[in-house]
Amino acid sequence: MVRMWHRMNIIFFHDGKNIFTKINQSRPSDYGCGTSQIILPLRPDKKFMKISENTFVGLTYELKVTNDEPDATPFSVEVRDEEDPFFFLYGNSGLPEKFEQNLANMIKGDKFQFVLEVEQAYGRPDDELIVAVPKSQFNKENGFEEEMLQEGNFLPLIDEDGYPMQAKVIKDLGEEIMLDFNHPLTGMNLHFEGEVHEVRKPTEKDLEEKDTD
Questions:
Q1: Where are the alpha helices (DSSP H) in 52-169?
Q2: Which of 89 and 33 is assigned the larger pLDDT?
């Protein structure tokens, strides 16, 4: 009698700690064809890397925000898809600490959904970061056009250490403009929903680009 195996299906699944394969296979017997299941852990080298200190992480997500009003409806302010994931160096990103904590130990393919309240995100607005600056500083020689100084626009700036920053134009005062240097998401609750797109060791290029961000 010749016995043959038929209809073998291999399924991968994750129990939160380990990755397993489940093999469903139909096997013949003297009385017909039966079905068996084999569940095996993958070899350690097949496990996905977990999000941990100094891993380079890519995320896809939608970010919605609300203010502190009781019946506030979240509205979308940013979407990062698979064509434009958000990448950062975990543990050295400058992002809110609670944001990183919510992603700890996740692997590629894991989904997440969480809310950062105002104090866990970018805090309350600081009145000392709203200042009047001479309009003459924002000239063509410094790379600014007149239309960039309209109220509501964000101006791309560089701080004294050479890092990029931005300020929102609050009001045109004639010879001066009022600028708000608070983070754009200050005073907002942040609602994240997305998926871990990639987790890997950072390359030299990743670290160089981080230093120039």
A1: 97-101
A2: 89
